[in-house]
Amino acid sequence: MGRAPCCDKSKVKRGxxxxxxxxxxxxxxxxxxxxxxxxxxPTKAGLNRCGKSCRLRWLNYLRPDIKRGGFTEEEDNLICTxxxxxxxxxxxxxxxxxxxxxxxxxxxxxxxxKKKFFAAYNMNLASREFPASVPKFESGTPQDHGTSxxxxxxxxxxxxxxxxxxxxxxxxxxxxxxxxNFLEVNxxxxxxxxxxxxxxxxxxxxxxxxxxxxxxxxxxxxxxxDESGALTDYxxxxxxxxxxxxxxx
DNA sequence: AACGACATCAACCGCCAAGGG
DNA sequence: CCCCTTGGCGGTTGATGTCGT
Length: 249
What we know:
Elements: H1 19-32, H2 41-45, H3 51-62, H4 73-86, H5 90-95, H6 102-128, H7 149-152, E1 160-161, E2 166-167, H8 170-178, E3 182-185, H9 196-201, H10 203-207, H11 211-214, E4 221-224, H12 240-245
Antiparallel strand pairs: 1-2, 3-4
The chain binds a DNA duplex through residues 3-4, 6, 14-17, 37-39, 50-53, 55-57, 59-61, 88-91, 102-104, 106-108, 110-112, 147, 189-190.
């Protein structure tokens, strides 16, 4: 027996969202929040859409803090470094790129960065006898590359500056983005890693939703991976565990 | 101008894990 | 425990745009 679908696909609208639907969803979320239930949200909001579709539309497109436009070189480098270390954990990678969604990062990787990544990698292989296997971490344990391992056959150029084909300072790059070990957590998605000071001092902070507006409490909770123990242990072997530790995971 | 190839990205699919009853 | 619902995630698809011939 197959798994029951989350909604009746034949009765809900699919495909691209209209501006009217976007407005309806935004207005509803602004006034009521998710109510902790995306599945029932479209009915309450008067949308003939699947709840999952509403959630995706909000997270990937309608959220006010979405950053649109091209990725910077620093973002490129960070994505490549993280991909080389933890694999295709797009939500984790996106959490280190404020304003970027996992879908954005995934699309960007698949359409552009992947080629750049391997072009730089091949260049390194040809010019500098880049080792066929890269045991950079002192632990000596095999790397866990997540679901992407088959793509690499165990070989990862994760210390490479893809734009320059030069050695890449992983810790430096990561520190530029992770700011601190605090993660922003809210009810509207997993994206957005910002330091407390960034949230509290920026103009963005003043525009953050209050619990009354969005029907939420503790919209922004600060978690420290070292201290709270609240964050998931993803079960990575070193070095991924060590790297994720930099982000509070 | 017309056409095909390629690139982009929004949206969907299906699986998995968490949590509540 | 077990089952069910839901949220979250990564992989994939398909519509649309852009470029080259």
